[in-house]
Design brief:
single chain; 665 residues; alpha/beta; 7-stranded mixed β-sheet; 4-stranded antiparallel β-sheet; 22 helices; 45% helix
């Protein structure tokens, strides 16, 4: 039988065109299969998501291992020896800063754009012997091992160059993508077709849109990714309890959906999405777009570094620019000012609850900016946390703003701990700069935000465009932030505050009944200022070191918390009344033995996923552990305990290995 071939106008036969279409479909199918596997792996990582390295609990253990393994996967993909190289994960902006400190030929880069997935990640593989010494190009949380008022001991390895919380989930997705490139081919994601979505539908529509207020919180909890996760403990299997929301928050299915749909949008839709999320931020934060610019960054730390670098760029011939902060501040609102911009710092003290003295604030501003009692020093910026990541108190920003502007200074608010908990009104309260991170707002996909009054950043147009481009590479992170803020608005910040206050009081009441516990900060439930506290509580025990107690809460109770200095070293030393001589001893010890455990406190921090049952579990476990510590233990019992801990560690290792395989296998 003769086959008739009809030619198309371009000379290609319909048969060959059909074959090309079929081949294209097969390629698309492979791309779709690879992308579906990427989604599955990332979803598995979200089930056990937590901040890395500086926490306790099953989730922190697994996320830390997944993150570290992403470094190994990256080096393997690049064909580099892990004994000679380390990997630092950066944004585009941070990559340029880091490369400026490196010699040509000592590093190689691989970006998420190159592999076809817009994650906003650049992997910089650096020869270990070429790592820059001294102060990193960007400073903040995680870069320092120990901080004092006049000196810093920097971390070793990649942590020193990954300021603030890294884009953990995006990095894991990056590692998973490299595995899939090896399996399906290096162009597999570049062949992935775009999928168009209406931006407003992506951000505003979901299965829960008929709910609001407390009922929406209830329904949203049912969509928590990792909800009901069962973990091994030394006392059998238990449901994991996450009480580490100040470090990072988990996420929910509607927010995850926004992320995964956004990364496949066509280019024009991505630009529409960026503008719509800026509108959402503007509305929710009370920052009109005709008055404020909104820049997407990597995290809070990168945002504050941008302001610090801008201040350093300002030509000041006749004055010495000075920054006023408080003892409450996180390293990300301390180190950038004294290391990046080299500004003189003034620190305000705090009372026993954690509030700054407004009279002291005004005295400092008046003496520096009006009476000129301190030579050429002029306070240019007052940089204050919106909520303390240790004591959980919220200072009176409107009053601070009024005093600050009275003396010609600008106000920066570190909003990392406040945006998910209390209503922010930037224009009303006179906030000039606001920095915060999406990963503390239930969108842990590597986006930060800087909201700044127009005209305050001292950069040229080209530099501004570079910063904007760097942040906007992570389109999924921006979409997930927008979706998270929309959900918080639908719940209502007043409802969130009311629910959180009730749980906070439940925690404090329970802790007050445990004699050996010492709680820091506000404890008086009847205080007229209790309304200014969010769900962050820190404590210590006389009998058990903070790191050991956190470990036992993890091993025996299935509870994840955070322990140590919480990147607020000066505040923790103030609370623990660390003598200056002891501080110098710590400095000497850490110089010789960097892994030495320092004094610290345990932090419990609440999120909208937490319930009364979580609090009751916490109090029950703490009662049990503190009571056990009082009894005498025989040598035989010690041997038995040691063996049990050894056996359980093997069980934990296997549990972690299985969880990692679910993501990367």
């Amino acid at each position: 039988m003769k086959t008739t071939i009809y030619n198309n106008e371009d000379g290609a036969s319909s048969t060959s065109q059909s074959k090309q279409e079929e081949k294209g479909m097969q390629k698309n199918n492979k791309s779709e299969i690879a992308f579906a596997e990427l989604e599955r792996g990332v979803h598995a990582a979200l089930e056990t998501y937590s901040n890395v390295h500086r926490g306790s609990g099953h989730n922190s253990m697994i996320s830390s291992n997944l993150y570290d393994q992403a470094r190994e996967i990256t080096l393997g993909y690049m064909g580099l020896d892990e004994n000679k190289y380390i990997v630092v994960f950066c944004s585009s902006k941070r990559t340029n800063n880091l490369k400026s400190q490196l010699k040509p030929g000592t590093y190689q880069c691989l970006t998420s754009q190159e592999i076809g997935i817009p994650l906003g990640i650049t992997a910089v593989a650096i020869e270990k012997k070429a790592l820059p010494k001294g102060t990193p190009s960007e400073c903040g949380g995680g870069t320092a091992r120990l901080v004092a008022a006049g000196w810093v001991i920097w971390n070793n390895g990649p942590d020193k160059f990954e300021a603030g919380t890294p884009a953990i989930v995006n990095v894991i997705a990056f590692g998973k993508s490299l595995i899939l490139l090896k399996q399906y081919g290096k162009d597999i994601f570049k062949k992935l077709p775009n999928t168009d979505h209406d931006v407003k539908e992506l951000l505003y529509k979901d299965e829960l849109e008929k709910y609001s207020g407390a009922e929406l919180i209830k329904q949203l909890r049912q969509t928590l990714i990792g909800r009901g996760f069962i973990v091994p403990t030394m006392e059998g299997k238990k449901q994991f309890v996450n009480l580490d929301n100040s470090a990072s928050t988990p996420t929910f299915t509607p927010i995850w959906n926004a992320f995964r749909h956004a990364i496949r949008l066509p280019e024009q839709r991505k630009q529409d999405l960026v503008q719509e999320v800026k509108t959402i931020c503007s509305e929710i934060l009370g920052a009109p777009l005709d008055t404020y610019d909104i820049i997407f960054t990597k995290n809070t730390t990168e945002s504050i570094n941008l302001v610090s670098e801008s201040l350093a760029n300002e030509p000041e011939k006749d004055i010495e620019p000075t920054v006023l902060i408080s003892l409450l501040e996180h390293s990300s609102n301390d180190l950038p000012w004294r290391m990046t911009s080299k500004m003189s710092l003034i620190r305000l003290g705090i009372d026993t609850d954690g509030f700054i003295d407004l009279a002291e604030l005004e005295t400092n501003l008046r003496e520096h900016n009006q009476e000129h009692k301190h030579g050429k020093k002029r306070i240019k910026i007052v940089a204050i946390s919106g909520a303390s990541n240790v004591l959980g108190i919220c200072n009176d920003i409107d009053k601070i703003s009024s005093i600050t502007h009275k003396y010609g200074a600008k106000l920066l608010v570190d909003g990392a701990q406040v945006v998910a908990h209390r209503k922010v009104e930037m224009e009303k309260d006179g906030i000039d700069y606001l920095a915060f991170s999406a990963h503390k707002v239930y969108a842990p996909f590597g986006t930060g935000v800087l909201v700044v009054k127009k005209g305050l950043l001292n950069y040229n147009l080209h530099e501004i465009k570079q910063f904007e481009s760097s942040g906007e590479e992570n389109i999924g992170g921006i979409a997930s932030l927008g979706k998270a803020l929309v959900l918080l608005r639908r719940i209502g910040m007043d409802v969130i505050h009311e629910e959180e206050q009730a749980l906070t009081k439940r925690v404090l009441k329970g802790l007050a009944d445990i004699p050996s516990l010492r709680v820091f900060g506000m404890k008086d439930l009847d205080s007229p200022k209790f309304d200014q506290k969010i769900g962050v509580i820190v404590f210590e025990t006389r009998e058990i070191l903070h790191n050991k107690l956190a470990k036992e809460m993890f091993h025996k109770g299935g509870i994840g918390v955070r322990y140590g200095c919480h990147c607020s070293h000066l505040l923790i030393k103030h609370l623990l009344k660390t003598h200056p001589v002891l501080e110098q001893v710590q400095r000497a010890v850490l110089t010789v033995s960097p892994k030495t455990q320092l004094p610290g406190v345990i932090r419990v921090s609440l999120g909208i996923e937490n319930t009364e049952e979580d609090i009751d579990t916490l109090i029950e476990v703490l009662n049990k552990l503190t009571n056990q510590s009082k009894g005498k233990v025989s040598s035989e019992q010690k041997k038995s305990i040691t063996q049990a801990e050894s056996d359980f560690q093997k069980q934990l290792d296997e549990f972690s290995k299985t969880a990692i395989q679910r993501v990367y296998a």
